[in-house]
Amino acid sequence: MITKLALVVTGLLLASQYRHHIEDHYDAHVFTHVEELVAAVRTDENGRVGLHREPTDPRFHRPNSGWYWEIVSGDQPLVKSASLKDQKLDLSGIVPDENHGVQTVYGPGGEKLRAHVVHVSYAQDPGSLTFVATAPQFQITDDVGDFATHVVMAFLLLAVGLSVAVVMQVRVALKPLKEIRREISDIKSGATERLSGNFPADVQPLVDELNYLLDHNEMLLKRARNQLGDLAHAVKNPLTVIRNEARSMDTRQGQLVLEQSHIMANNIDHYLSRARIYGKKDAIGYRTSVHSVLEDIAYAVGHIYKDRDIDISLSCVQEKWFRGEAQDLEEMAGNLLDNACKWAEQRVVVHCERENGHCLLYVEDDGPGIPTDKIEQVMQRGQRLDESREGHGLGLGIIQDVVELYGGGLSLGKSSYGGLSARLKLP
Predict the structure, then answer these.
(1) pLDDT by residue (tens digit) across 294-345?
(2) Of 423, 405, 407, whose CA–CA distance to 360 is shortest?
(3) CA-CA distance, 177 to 156, in Å (whole number)?
(4) Cis upstream peptide for 126 (omega within 30°)
(5) Neighbours of 213 (CB within 10 A)
């Protein structure tokens, strides 16, 4: 925008300067003819004013050319150019100027003329005479218009050339940044771990700093995981001792200690698992194959329920990816598959879809399902509808905790096989 404005201002300035130049050129040419007229004035023996030599410019002989001259005494023209024929100039508005300034007069057809008017007084005859020479104003306007047209065309070409040059320069300058953006996208998707490639000297420090931040983030993440693992072991070992001692106590107090220690152990597992997930939910560079994780879980769960001969089938899970860590997907999918196999009659189906940048994982079974009005109750932590099967009612709550930290969601509904359909929405 600034470049275009600069070109417009420059074009207007050039046109204005050219107008002044062409006007000065015409005025100097006209004044030369006035001087010719003053030098050529003669009087005959009868006292009549005449010219012994007329201006040689052929335009003074072309009718209505706008190039005219007159020698006037009082209000009467004494001698005039052939281009005026039997007409005369309208000199009613002129003012004799000792500085020989340019004035505007009007020709026979009302045309606008630029005129030099010189008033000369003689000590003897012919007395006082006024010399007038003109040039047409439209020729100046036409010359300036032609010049402006050429300037506009030249500046248009210049503007196009500058625009192309700016676009090319910006593309070349932004190419390293686009490459950095592409590599950061690859890091986020897990395709690579660090920025690589050759970058210009001005951009390389930025790349080095980004790689340093990635290394620092990974180091902090590993340190946090190690500390959480140490804390888990440090707390679980005393709890194991407490539970063993409580089992040896036959009193009501021993039973109470055992129950509370179980609750403490479950809470520790839950909150430590949640803390580990929260520490890495925003970390970049993780990508997990859905197919590989589900295949391992299906094998493990199938082995657990092998006596019930449940058919676990995986459908459309190839080439699907979860933007997160494998153990988080294992925890979510493992709980869902375990629940499905626990309630299924003969069949569990797992399939996956991709929708608007999300991975939708469905786990369906042919079991009794859950009544619609009971789904909200089941989603609450620790709630169970049927106490006949083993479990603590924490599985769905843990899944919700994990999936929400990834910005996804868990929903339950009716399966097309008659049982329950659990849907995980994952990044």
Answers:
(1) 888 888 888 888 888 888 888 777 777 887 777 788 888 888 888 888 888 8
(2) 423
(3) 31
(4) yes
(5) 10
